[in-house]
Amino acid sequence: MNELAKAFWDHALKALRTAQRDFSLDTDASASRSYYAGFYAVSAWFALQNKRFSKHSAIEVAVHRDLVKTGLWPEQGGADFSFLRRTRVRSDYEAIEDTSEDDAREALAAAQRILELIHSARPDLFPLPQEKP
User: Do the beta carbons of residue 78 and residue 67 sit within 8 Å?
Assistant: First the structure.
């Protein structure tokens, strides 16, 4: 695995752990970290193909174009990534209303599903937390 893909995967696992830890303390922080878990996991996948994105919107487009439309991911994977992105924007920039517990819980589940999709495609390169040495 290339060094960048490994670094992104490590960031994804760390962000997921942080999202889980922060859930009961701060739903906004948890939702934001859930997005970054998915973002870093997808970035790890694309790094294997020497693809990098400078905008969050560009990586969302790539998820739908390169993963969902090609059949590598089910439609739910694209929906999960889009949900995470919308929830992260709301949790990071909406000052009026906190992220609901239901949305933060769904963000955690969506992030976990994305990591599992990446893991299932290349379990040799992308171990899940319980499999990490």
Answer: yes
